Amino acid sequence: MCFFVCSVALCTGESSTLPVSRDFYSGALEKSLENYLLVVENSHSIWGYLNAARVLCDLGQQAESLALLEEAVQRFPEEATVQSCLGWGYFFVGKLSEARLWFVKAIENFPPNDLNVLGLAQVELESGNAREALVLIRQFLNLYPRSAVGHCVLGKAYDALGNLEEAVVSFQKALALDSHFVEARPLLADIFERQGKVEEAWAEYSQIVRTNPGNQAAQKAKEKLFAFLSEKPDKILPPATVDAHSLVQGLAGSDEWPVIRVGIGAAAGGKPGWKESVVFRPYSRLTIVEQASGKVLVQSRLKGKWVIRKTRSKKNPNQLVVVAPDQRVAGVFDQRVVVQQEHGSFIVNALSFAPNMPWSGFADKELRGDLEIVPHKSRQKFYVVNRVSMEEYLYGVLAAEMPSHWPLEALKAQAVAARTFVVHRQKVIKLHRHVKYDVCDGQHCQVYTGVSAEDARVKEAVNGTFGEILVFKGRPVQSLFCSNCGGHTQSSEEIGWFAFPYLRPVTDGRFALEGLKSPWHLYQWLRKSSERYCEASDFVRASHARWVRLVPIDVVASNAQAFKRVGKLRNVVILKRSRSGHAQSARIFGEKGTIDLVKEYQIRRVLGLGPLRSTLCFVDQVRRKGEIVSLMIWGGGWGHAVGMCQSGAAGRAERGFLYEDILLFYFSGASLKKLPYANAQQ
Q: Fewer CB within 10 A of the terminal residue: the chain, N end or C end?
C-alpha cells in the first residue's frame, strides 16, 4: 500500500506512543504485524492501522491490507491518508472503480498537491479513459515537473490516444530526468517499430541489453531488427570521440609522487577489459619497451593511429603485433610491454565504460602517463593499464565522481576521499593485485575518465588538498562514498562488509530526526521532503534523492533465473532492513521454489530492468486477476549509502561547511594527514 498524504492529525502527538518496530527491521514481519494488530485491537489507533496495513502489503497480503483499511476508514471517515491508501490498494489489486472512488475522496479532502493525482491518472488510463488520464497527469506534472514516472504515464496516455510523436517526447523526457528509468526504453522501442524506425528501435533494444545483458526479450528483438538496419551499428550508437590532444602539461615534482596503476576499459566488477585490438594515438615521440627485459621494440615519431592486435600468423598464434599509422608491422611481442612518449597524452579509442549501467557505452579516453599492454598467458587477447602519478590521476577522477560546478569545499572533500580511496586500495586491501593494477576505471573502484575530466576547479580542489588523506589510528581509512544516501547512511557491516569504527550510520538531515520508528514512519519519510542536506537542489537532481520505478514482473522473473529457476513469480518480499531503512535481504517466491537475495547488489540487480539506484525502497505489487504483472518501487538515494554522501557534501558546503568538517562528519573518529611526498614538497 502506498501512503502519500501526511495530514495534521497524523503528524502530531500520537506517533510518540508507538514503539520502535525492531521486528520489522530485523525481518520478522509476521511478528511485527502481530504487534501492530494488538495496537489496533487495544486502542484502535490510526497508527496501528497504518503500520499493520503496510506490513501486510510488504508480505504480499493485499486483500487483508485492504480489509484492515476499510475498517480504519469506518473509524476515521474524513482522514485523507486512509482514503489515499485505499485508492492505491484497490489500484494495485485491479479494482479500478473502487480505486477511483477513494482517490477522488482523498483529493477532495486534501487538495491535489500529493501523488493521489498520479494514482487516479493511472486508474483512468487503465480503464480506457486516456483523455481523462491526460488531463490528470498534466495536472500532476504541473506540481512535479521533474517526475520521471509522471512523464512515463504521460507517454502512455499519448500512446493510447494515437499521438505517437508526443509519446516519444514524453518517454525520452522520463529518461532525461532519470537515467535509471530504463522501463521507458521498451515503450520507446515499441513505438519506433510501429513507426517503421528500425534504427531507433534497434538502438533502444541495444541500450537495454547493455544495461541488462541477461534480458532475452531485448536481445531477440535486437537480433530480429539487425537484418533490416540501413546503417552500421557504430553509426547508430557511435562512441564518443576525442578528436585532438589537449595541451597537457607535466606537473612539477610529479616524478616523486606515487604511481597509480589503473585498469582501463574494465569490465563489470572491475575485472580486466580483455581486448583483441586497441587503437591509440600518441602526442609525441613513441617508445614501446618490454617491461621485463627493457628491450626497445618500437621508437617512432609517426603520429596518427597506432594499433595493437592479435597476430594473423598461424606460426606464432600467441603473439601480439604493433601496427604503425603507415600500416607496417612495427613490432611483435608476447609479454607485458610499456608504451611511453616524451610528453603529452595518449588518446585511446573506443573503450567501454559503465558496464551494465543505463548509460553504458564506448568512448575515446585521453590519458596522462604511460600505457601497459598485458597479454593473456595462453590466448590472443590483452588488457590495458594506465600508469599515472597520484595527483594527475585525481585530476582525471574528480569531475567523473562529482560535477566540477559543485561547491569548492565539496570538491575538496571528494578529492581527499578519492586520494584516500586509492591509497587504501594500493597499500591495504590490494583488491586487484592478481591482475597487477591498483584500481579499475569504473564504479567498482572510482570512475576515472582521464584528461576530459580536468578543469580549473578540479585542479584547484586537488591542489588545495595536495597529498592529504584520511586516517584512523594512523592507517588510511576505507574512504567509501556514494552519490546520495537518501537521508541516512549505513554502517559498513550493515551492508555485509567488514566493520569499520569510522563507517557508522549518520542522519544526513539538517535537523535531528526522531528516528525511523516503524514501517509507516519509514514510508512517510521516504515519500516526502525532510530537510535533508542531500535533497534535490541546484546541485542534486531530483531522481538522485527520491525516485519511482515501474518494473514488469517478467523482467524480475528473467533476472531471478540467474540464481534459480522458480517458475512464475508469486510474491516479492523485502525482509531485513538496516537502521536507515535500506533493504538487506529479500525473498522471491515462485511456483517452483524461493530465492533469497542477501547482497545489496543482488537486490538492486534483480528488482529492476536496470539496477535500482539503491535498496532504500518499498515494493508495491501490481496484480491483475490475482497475478503479479509489475512492481511499483518507491525509493530514495543512489548507491550503497556507506561513508560520504556526495550530495550531502554539496548541501553542507552550500551552507558554509569546510571540507574538513564534511569529511569528519561522515568518517567518525578519523583525522587528516599529509602523505610523505606532500610533506617533502612543502
A: C
How wide is the angle at C-alpha 496 spanned by C-alphas 495 and 499, nearest 5°? 95
pLDDT tens column, 496-550: 888 999 999 998 876 555 446 789 888 888 877 667 899 989 999 999 999 999 9
Residue 351: left if φ>0, alpha if ψ -120 to 50, beta else—which one? beta
State the CB neighbour count (10 A cutoff) for residue 679: 10
CB 91 within 8 A of CB 99: yes
pTM: 0.93
CB neighbourhood size of 297 (10 A): 17
Question: Reduced to 3 states, what is the DSSP secondary structure of residue 476?
Answer: strand
Closest CA to 257 of 622, 656, 675: 675
Q: How far, in whole angstroms, is CA 303 from its chain's centroid? A: 39
How does strand 337-341 pair with strand 286-290?
antiparallel
Q: What is the pLDDT of residues 235-284, one digit of tens each?
A: 999 989 999 999 888 888 888 899 999 999 999 899 999 999 999 999 99
Q: Taking 60 as the threshold, does the pLDDT of residue 176 lie above it?
A: yes
DSSP 427: I
Average pLDDT of span 425-444: 94
Contact partners, residue 403, CB within 8 Å, separation at least 6? 539
Q: Give dist(CA 374, CA 436) in Å, integer.
A: 9
Question: Measuring CA to CA, which residue among 535, 468, 450 is closest to residue 676?
Answer: 468
CB 482 within 8 A of CB 616: no
Residue ranges of the alpha helices (H) in 360-445?
390-401, 408-424
The pLDDT, as a whole number, for residue 14 is 44
Tell me the DSSP string of 221-288: HHHHHHTT-SS-HHHHSPPB---S---PPPPTTGGGSPEEEEEET--GGG----BSEEEEE-SS-EEE
CA 198 remoteness from chain centre: 29
Cell numbers given for 204:
533502444
Q: What number of other Cβ atoms are within 10 A of residue 652's Cβ?
A: 25
Sheet holding 627-636, edge to edge: 546-552, 627-636, 617-624
Q: What percent of the chain has pLDDT over 90?
A: 83
> What is residue 112's predicted lDDT score, i.e. its pLDDT?
66
Classified as helix, coil or strand, 12 is coil
Q: What's the pLDDT at 530?
A: 66
Q: In the structure grid, which three cell numbers stand for residue 382, read together? A: 590483452
Q: Give residue 517's pLDDT.
A: 72
Q: How confident is the model over 5-36, as pLDDT tens digits? A: 343 334 433 444 455 578 999 999 999 999 99
Q: Decide: 645 and 527 in contact? Cβ < 8 Å.
A: no
Which one, of 240, 617, 678, lies nearest residue 462 by Cα? 678
How confident is the model over 383-434, as pLDDT tens digits? Answer: 999 999 999 999 999 999 999 999 999 999 999 999 999 999 999 999 999 9
The neighbouring-strand residues paired with 588 are: 572, 595
Is 36 in a helix, a strand, or coil? Answer: helix
Q: Which residues of 108-145 are buried (b: 16+ CB within 10 A; e: fewer)?
A: ebbebebbbbbbbbbbbbbeebbebbbebbeebbeebe
Burial 529-554 (b: 16+ CB within 10 A, else e): ebebbbbbeebbbbbbbbbbbbbbbb
**95 vs 92: CA distance, rounded Å:** 8
| pLDDT tops 60 at residue 102 | yes
Question: Residue 548 in 3-state DSSP?
Answer: strand
Q: What is the mean pLDDT of the chain?
A: 92
